[in-house]
Amino acid sequence: MRLGLFTPIFNGLSLDALLAELKKYPQIEALEIGSGGWPGSSHLDLEGMLASKEAARAFRSKLEDAGLTISALSCHGNPVHPKREIAGRDDELLRKTVRLAEQIHVPVVVTFSGCPGGSAQDVTPNWITAAWPPEFSEALAWQWEERLIPYWKGAAQFAKDAGVKVALEAHPGFCVYNPETVLKLRAAVGSSVGINLDPSHLWWQGIDIPAAIGALGEAIFHFHAKDVAINAAMRDVNGVLDTKSYREMAKRSWLFRSVGWGHGELEWKRIASALRLAGYDYVMSIEHEDALASTQEGLSSAIGMLSRVLLKEPPVEAWWA
């Protein structure tokens, strides 16, 4: 496995400035780059590169000259949003990103599954987390049968035809938020859809990450290295579903943290081992969303721990094999 970086933490820098900054972090070998949507597109001109093969080649060559590859293009959005104009915008972004990934030979596009409303009349997404009252179960069935599966059947085929895999970031608030929902959608729409596994979105739900990795297996297309710290005093009183602002850090049940500031090295070693057992040998893409650490502090901390966790060379074959 290789270390990568999800670049929105440097959205204030141009591409050239980003590449200069990354010389401070020689352990980073791959970049996950936003093409629009929530990650933004500070380092990539999606429209320009789609319009000009020369511009696309120049972009990739610039990264290669810096000793970097592209692990994924990311376009997090909600392509099944109940407002058609938002759904259409995010679907168009996804399809353009897939086309660019095909053009510049990037194997993975990362996004969200999205979340529709609870009925055809809704204008606001409705994340359903309980089976009762009965209208909740009815609305959930409608979401999957009438919106999610039909949309992703078409989008999955589009990606498959382009030779690109779509890695859905399992994230609470969207219909795909845990391993079960990833595998449910994948079974319905095809194997070109899998997961961008971000432990930080699963830990606070009470999920054991190595167990989740074992269940997901070949459905793991990409991996975000991000941590979570649980505030036990708040969790023990209020549970883990927490709608307070991320600015109210001391009052929340959990906070996103840099790798190593929520879970220790042994836990990250368990994760790396589980990934190898599952056949994942790609990139751990560091995502910095730690309000308690500066960019330099959080990134350096994550690189330090993950460099110890990941084996640089493949394991030596055992004498009994």
TrEMBL record:
Entry annotated with the keyword 4Fe-4S: no
Keywords, sorted A to Z: Isomerase
Occurrences of domain Xylose isomerase-like TIM barrel (ranges): 52-299
SUPFAM superfamilies for the chain: Xylose isomerase-like (SSF51658)
Family matches, as InterPro entries: IolE/XylAMocC-like, Xyl_isomerase-like_sf, Xyl_isomerase-like_TIM-brl
GO molecular function: isomerase activity
Isomerase found in the keyword field: yes
Protein name in UniProt: Sugar phosphate isomerase/epimerase
